[in-house]
Amino acid sequence: MSMRVLHVEAGKHLYGGALQVVFLMRGLAQRGVDVALACPTGSAIASAVRELGLTVHEMPMRGDADVGLVERLGGLMGRWAPDVLHLHSRRGCDTWGVLAGRFRGVPTVLSRRVDNPESRWWAALKYRGPNHVVTISQGIRQVLLGEGVPEDRITCVPSAVDTEQYRPGRGELAWFRREFGVPDDALTIGMAAQFIERKGHATLLDALPTVLQRHPQTRVLLFGQGPLVEMVRQRLSADAALASRVQLPGFRRDLDRVLPCLDVLAHPASMEGLGVALLQAAACGVPIVGGRAGGIPEIVRPGLNGELIEPGDVAGLARALNTLLDSEALRAQQGAAGRAWVEQHFSIDAMVEGNLAVYLRQMKNR
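That's the Glycosyltransferase family 4 protein sequence above. Prediction below.
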């Protein structure tokens, strides 16, 4: 296919959004599209994309105040001559990257991965720049529509999960128990998220005493890193009962091996664009208790593959977790349903084809 697409990802870590860029670039290259990546110098995504044999351009990306990004991206576009510019993150991309595309006359697509609301005046200004906006969930699309962004300038293309990498049985339970010191008779609750307020760690910690009263052998693994890690550590140090049951293993690159060994995944977020870790857990056959926020209800279907709670509902979270911990049969049933759900609705092929259709429309409208 005769098309060149320059992707820009400003994040330095290979978190959910950056992984989607890797999936997308790989899928486009397999379809004959010429792709290249612009990313921060020394970022993890640079190594991941190079491993695919694809072109990477590393450059300084310093965030919202980095007006020089316009010149750097513009110069790269002048040399590489893309047909479409796809901006995958904020951190300056949604302002300076859009300007660079405009100055070069290159159709610009902006991905929106978060569901936090913006003022109508700012949304009107910000989303006037890109030719099209791709949201990773219907929840985010509704936020933009509510802020006055025209419907014909928004397309929802859900994020995807690699169901070959993330699948039931990939993890080894004996290894898992040794790795995290989990007793043979203990059930495990996991949470894989950045330690930031909107992910709901505080809600889970508040619910755990009720859960542990009913299931005292349960172990809780909070994967990830972020600014609230120390707050959580301090809270655990002040509560011996929680400290003996909750671990902070940090950021893990082997979640495909870890997630299949969990009994339940908790994600009581108050805001969430979609939640790649939820897709991964569902693909691994793990039932989920999530917050009714953003795109989470598009993954977690109450009674099918887990339960939803209202954000901040501590009692509701405890009830839902206890219900799943009570029944091995229910966990197996909902885990299998979750696997089937993501295979049907969140495949990599569907994500790649959805973005490709957006590019073709922008090229046609030039």
